[in-house]
Amino acid sequence: xxxxxxxxxxxxxxxxxxxxxxxxxxxxxxxxxxxxxxxxxxxxxxxxxxxxxxxxxxxxxxxxxxxxxxxxxxxxxxxxxxxxxxxxxxxxxxxxxxxxxxxxxxxxxxxxxxxxxxxxxxxxxxxxxxxxxxxxxxxxxxxxxxxxxxxxxxxxxxxxxxxxxxxxxxxxxxxxxxxxxxxxxxxxxxxxxxxxxxxxxxxxxxxxxxxxxxxxxxxxxxxxxxxxxxxxxxxxxxxxxxxxxxxxxxxxxxxxxxxxxxxxxxxxxxxxxxxxxxxxxxxxxxxxxxxxxxxxxxxxxxxxxxxxxxxxxxxxxxxxxxxxxxxxxxxxxxxxxxxxxxxxxxxxxxxxxxxxxxxxxxxxxxxxxxxxx
Length: 373
Fold this sequence. Notes:
Blueprint: H1 2-16, H2 22-41, H3 52-63, H4 76-88, H5 99-110, E1 113-119, H6 126-133, H7 137-144, E2 156-162, E3 169-170, E4 176-177, E5 184-192, H8 199-206, H9 210-216, E6 229-235, E7 257-259, E8 262-265, E9 272-275, E10 278-281, E11 287-289, E12 294-302, E13 306-312, E14 317-327, E15 334-335, E16 340-344, E17 354-361, E18 364-366
Antiparallel strand pairs: 1-2, 3-4, 5-6, 7-10, 8-9, 10-17, 11-16, 12-13, 12-15, 13-14, 14-16, 14-17, 17-18
InterPro entries: Cell_wall_metabolism_enzyme, Dup_hybrid_motif, LysM, LysM_dom_sf, M23ase_b-sheet_dom, Peptidoglycan-bd-like, PGBD-like_sf, PGBDSf
Protein name: Murein DD-endopeptidase MepM and murein hydrolase activator NlpD, contain LysM domain
Keywords: Hydrolase
């Protein structure tokens, strides 16, 4: 949205310029219309679409009384429910879930929900926020009339709180206890779904039964999607911190996160992709420091990553620093927390100077934002 506002200012200034030909304003106006169309299209759902956004819409339609399965596929039953909603609310009846229909759904939804105010902080995304607050992304989008999935740090938004939540009891740490699962406590452990991963895989990995995972994530079925963040319930006897949680991480450099962890569109091809780390904006030659103490496992050129450093912190945890312009360490060196190990750059497959940073546990990339201060 900030880009669109800047484009409007640029167009006005150019039009005011005496030497600007009419064609200039026409071309720039067309560019602005295209950008606005892209923004609006990103929030529109229609028949044939699949994914977590569709499932969240289906869950929301269930909340207001529509009988349909939340399977993440926008097919005839979902289209029919949207049409009924449109008829009830005097919106245009086309079965497409766009801005006007979202506004009408918001009015119906608000009557069933209380809200609380939440100030966005660095690292917050719709998926992580939805998981942490135990609410669907679609409800957050609807209640705040979001026109983009990008969240700006420092902005206050409303988080829906279902009135039925008041009937839930709280555990010793303030965690919710659901139904018969009174022996389950919520710890800080989260899991981001990888491509090809199933709920059974996650259940086996954490030694937690599928029903417990489904319950604490308010799931209606076993459908999960790459990039989705799930909360993993822990038995009360499992309060000991994991090897990952015992490491005192620091930011490898200070900067804005330009691409978060999880599902995204690949910057070059535009195809769906899973981003295994976070990209932090940095000018060429910015000092990069070790996020924690350890031993350098690799320092050199890595396909796609350019000049890369990998540090082993224990037998389970490593961190990766990519796209550097120059490396200051060699494999086998012991490194202290905060020690400068490289300078940021634009090597490998990169769209510009930045640092690509990963935290890896037993070969599986984790969301770094969940472990950084």
